[in-house]
Design a protein that fits this description.
Length: about 900
């Protein structure tokens, strides 16, 4: 029964506290009145009887508090009371509260947004069966080709001979020209071809329909395709009747056999369809040992480590290499990496850098709020001292301070969560091409992290602002607020210390942002070796029976260029397999016919491009010597090659290359010209390039380049009309100017630099506000002292200089510490910099000068106000 009574008491004190309190008051009154009646019976007067009863019974208020203290839920009532007091206090200082909430919201919002991104992209497991057992496979050809692509012949031997993988998959990403019934326009679709076991290896089943079988994955099979959920919804209206229907990919019929789940993605979120690789690729390519055009994924057997699998695959590759010493492109070893790491390697470091930056912003925000709380505590020092003198315990006063900080952090966290949601939506929309972008979403884990950040901010802000606040002697606290005393030195030192830390963190962020911005500017201003203004590009892929023969390809390119060049306003036009800035796009092995044969197992190779004779003029690549291809030499008669200056320097260092011959692709090519260097990527230096004639009919894809003195974008639609006349089923993709193409390739660098610069600007604003607040507080607290100094003859210029010195001192100390810390930390972002040294003196000097200028501007107004004080008015106000 005691247990039941105890439980009943606990429930009553929780849900009926007011009733229990009333019963307690009634019981206390009963005992006092009972004793009073007994005293009256003994002959005492009514007043004397009550005084004696109270004296004997004890203080009812104290007894009430002691009794309530043993109730199980008394702590909750105390916390609720403290929260009410804190809310009432913050409501009375609304401007302070709104400022603190805004600062906290920005810090928490930025951290939640970046934590959500990092967790989704880098930390959350892949949505496959046992994803930690999946590894990406690579070949190691030469030292400069570690983590190289896979040759289909090597994959074949891995599948036959390996002892460490339970399954292994080969795949490649491809562009498809998609056409279907119903009058829909053709479109370019990014897809992938894979071995039939791709989805079983990943442990993924289609949402409906089926996946590939071994029978589908053979050259003699009928074409089959599995659609992504997004393509099914967008192009086919989410109609399940598309199953077993025929669509055309690259002018070949394919039967739709399945649709993947909406959550499925693999390596590239833009992949919209899957086909069977052995059906799609020519049989001769699937036996090649030196064409590294594919990717592979393996699943480790139980109990096998990644290192064991890498060693096992390397033995197989080495055996193949030793059997083909005449072919230096056959690899020597294998490389592996966890599948997740292989998918996010390019964003891993930038995301962690940005997360660290948001951590700095949050810490700056907490320090700023702590500074505001210190200022408010200094203004309430006399009130706190009086409450302490009346018996208020230090823990009780500290608890009130923490409650205020908690309320500010809760409000800031709620606003910050809303800001984070908006930031995540913006990020997903802005960086749609980023790997694993679909995994970024706010869920219960993110909400729990937000709660943790709120508590952390409350503790940091509350505890830091409370350091030493209640240790000052009562008499000293009262004297600090009395007439004629100057500011409390303890609070002043505390605010200056917090401000110095803020400035130091701000400097670190500014240095990092400055380096990334300088790197991005140099990247965008790098000389591509060609004209980029008023140049339009668009991508073409020629597939199907219309382009099976080299003559068909040559006729199409010739007809297209003839019509495009005839458009009014077109200055020149050309076609190239890839334009500068589009990427590597492959290389070609060659030998100089006039040079001695190379030793066995050595090779010469360079980037290769197939271009038409007018391409160089169209994109503004200058001829240094010689001339372009003879346009009349076509198909088998095409035997000329153009090289760039880097090629000439590297392979013909002390001789004239013109008239010499390169042996490549089974035939000899005469070098007819030398052109200037271009960059295949903005961040890469020029490399040797060999240009072969497009009119040999070997290339079925390329970029059309149009140059004009007018606004070149106006030619986008006329050119597409020409293409539609030549081939109604031919889609066009990536219609953009050269400036847009280069901007897209540098989008990641721009995003990282811009975001970090935004965080740095925010921290600089907070630091400037902190400087202004600290100095304004010092001036307000020292009004009497400054007035006395001026009255005793101090020059106003001296007062201005002294106050400025007080304000700039923590800024200079923080700046010095921040520069030292930056020098040690910036090497962590060295891999993100382009032609920019981590200790770039321009960036360090610029940040130092800018911060001093901002600090001077923030301090000037309160310092000027101090120097303009009227001594009599200052003393009268005091």
């Amino acid at each position: 029964m005691r247990i039941l009574d105890r439980m009943r008491m606990i429930l009553r004190t929780l849900f009926a506290r007011h009733r229990s309190a009333a019963e307690l008051d009634a019981e206390l009154r009963f005992h006092v009145e009972q004793q009073t009646r007994e005293n009256l019976a003994c002959g005492m007067s009514p007043e004397e009887a009550r005084r004696a009863a109270l004296r004997g019974f004890g203080n009812p208020a104290l007894l009430r508090d002691q009794t309530r203290a043993v109730w199980n839920w008394n702590w909750l009532e105390i916390w609720i009371r403290d929260l009410r007091i804190a809310a009432r206090t913050l409501r009375h200082t609304l401007s302070f509260s709104l400022l603190a909430i805004g600062v906290t919201a920005l810090g928490i919002g930025a951290n939640i947004a970046l934590f959500t991104t990092v967790r989704g992209v880098l930390l959350s497991p892949l949505p496959y069966k046992n994803p930690d057992r999946l590894i990406a496979l690579y070949e190691h050809t030469l030292d400069q080709f570690a983590y190289n692509g896979i040759a289909a012949g090597v994959f074949r031997e891995w599948r036959r001979q390996n002892r460490t993988l339970s399954d292994i998959v080969l795949y490649s990403e491809d562009d498809f020209n998609l056409t279907s019934a119903g009058g829909q326009l053709p479109e370019k679709a990014i897809g992938a071809s894979s071995t039939w076991n791709m989805f079983p290896t990943l442990g993924v089943s289609p949402a409906f329909g089926r996946s590939f079988t071994p029978d589908d994955d053979s050259p003699s099979a009928e074409g089959t395709v599995v659609l992504s959920w997004g393509l099914w919804k967008r192009r086919f209206g989410g109609d399940k009747a598309i199953l077993n229907q025929t669509i055309h990919l690259n002018s070949r019929p394919y039967t739709v056999i399945g649709v993947l789940p909406s959550w499925f993605y693999f390596t590239d979120p833009q992949i919209q369809l899957w086909t069977a690789i052995y059906h799609d690729k020519p049989a001769r390519l699937m036996d090649e040992l030196a064409q590294h055009n594919y990717h592979a994924v393996g699943r480790l057997k139980p109990g096998v480590s990644e290192a064991q699998a890498r060693a096992d695959l390397s033995v197989i590759v080495r055996r193949l290499h030793d059997q083909h010493l005449d072919n230096p492109f056959v690899s020597r070893a294998a490389d592996t990496s966890p599948l997740l790491q292989s998918m996010v390697w390019d964003v891993e470091r930038p995301l962690y850098v940005l997360l660290a930056a948001t951590g700095c912003v949050l810490l700056i925000a907490c320090l700023n709020v702590a500074n505001l709380l210190v200022a408010r505590a200094a203004a309430r020092q006399r009130d706190i001292a009086i409450r302490s003198a009346l018996g208020g315990g230090a823990f009780r006063l500290l608890r009130e301070r923490l409650m205020e900080s908690l309320l500010l952090s809760l409000a800031g966290g709620a606003v910050g969560l809303g800001l984070a949601y908006g930031a995540v939506v913006w990020l997903v929309h802005t960086r749609a091409e980023m790997s694993r972008i679909e995994a970024i979403h706010i869920d219960g884990v993110v909400d729990a992290a937000a709660v943790g950040l709120v508590v952390l901010c409350a503790l940091v802000s509350g505890l830091i602002s409370s350091l030493g606040a209640y240790r000052q002697p009562l008499l000293a606290s009262l004297q600090d607020s009395s007439r004629g005393s100057s500011a409390g030195h303890r609070q002043t030192r505390m605010r200056a210390t917090l401000l110095g830390i803020e400035v130091g963190l701000t400097v670190v962020l500014l240095i990092g942002a400055g380096l990334l911005m300088r790197s991005y500017q140099r990247l965008r201003s790098s000389d591509m070796g060609c004209v980029t203004d008023n140049v339009l590009t668009m991508r073409l892929d020629l597939f199907g029976h219309k382009y099976n023969q080299p003559a068909q390809l040559v006729n199409f390119y010739s007809s297209l260029l003839e019509r495009v060049r005839a458009l009014p306003g077109v200055e020149s036009a050309g076609v190239a397999m890839a334009v500068p800035g589009m990427g590597y796009w492959g290389d070609e092995q060659f030998a100089v016919v006039e040079h001695p044969p190379l030793p066995q197992s050595t090779m010469q190779f360079a980037i290769d491009r197939d271009v038409d004779p007018g391409f160089f003029e169209a994109i503004g690549i200058p001829f240094l010597r010689g001339h372009t291809f003879d346009p009349n030499r076509r198909l088998k008669d095409a035997n000329q090659v153009v090289i760039n200056a880097s090629f000439a320097r590297q392979y013909f260092p002390n001789e004239d290359p013109l008239g010499k011959h390169l042996h490549a692709g089974g035939k000899d090519w005469e070098i007819c010209g030398i052109v200037g260097d271009t960059r295949h990527a903005q961040s890469e230096p020029p490399q040797p390039i060999q240009y072969y004639p497009l009119y040999d009919g070997e290339v079925n894809n390329g970029s059309l380049v149009i140059r004009s003195r007018k606004d070149v974008e106006q030619f986008a639609m006329p050119v597409q009309h020409i293409l539609a006349q030549l081939d109604p089923d031919l889609p066009v993709s990536n219609v953009m100017t050269m400036d847009q193409l280069l901007g897209k390739s540098a989008a990641s660098a721009s995003f990282n630099a811009t975001l970090l610069a935004g965080f740095a600007a925010l921290s600089l604003l907070l630091a400037a506000a902190g400087l202004f607040g600290v100095l304004s507080y010092i001036v307000a607290q020292r009004t009497t002292e400054i007035g006395i100094r001026i009255a005793l003859g101090a020059q106003r210029g001296q007062v201005l200089g002294r106050v400025l010195l007080d304000g700039l001192r923590p800024a200079v100390i923080g700046l010095t510490a921040g520069l030292v810390a930056s020098a040690a930390l910036v090497r962590s972002i060295q891999s993100m910099l382009y032609h920019t040294e981590p200790l770039d003196p321009v960036v360090f000097a610029g940040v130092g000068g800018m911060l001093l200028a901002v600090a001077l501007g923030a301090c000037l107004a309160p310092a000027w106000r101090a120097s303009r004080l009227d001594p009599m008015q200052a003393l009268r106000n005091e």
